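Table 4 source record.
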Amino acid sequence: MKTYKIDNSKISEYTKRNDNRVFKILAITMLAMPFLMFPMTKQKDAPAELIYILLFSMLFTALIIGLIYLNNKKLTRLTAENLQIVIDDNSITRVIDLDNEPRLNFLHKMAYDRVKNISGGYYAKVDFDNIKSIEKKNGDLWVKATNSNAFNGKNIVLIPRELTNFDDIEKELNNKRK
């Protein structure tokens, strides 16, 4: 049985890559909001205070989006520090165990418990004889089982490129695949 982790020197690279993806989603959300709200101010019977209500709601939304981003940034770092890919004779397993992590705050624990219960984001195992495909996307490896679900991530093992000996993992998977 072999266990692989992200090297401490590459954790910031991993978190930056994931944070950029989340930031793009949040920025699109924030930038789309004025375009959706502006037509309301041009209506014939719109109250004069409507522009102030819209500005307040935009500022409040920006605050909420900023807090979501900061919360996600810390959770991504904790996830990277606790990520393990375990390869044994019969399977590959992705394990992220944050149950005893002392640096989790209330929001982190809530998000972790929710995702842990409904998806394969924190624990996923694929037997070698059930592998449907091994794909390389954006430098990462995606190992999908025959019964994988792309919507919720069940039975999909995502192997980030920042893992130590990443190339060895790819070779070993291709050798053990039946």
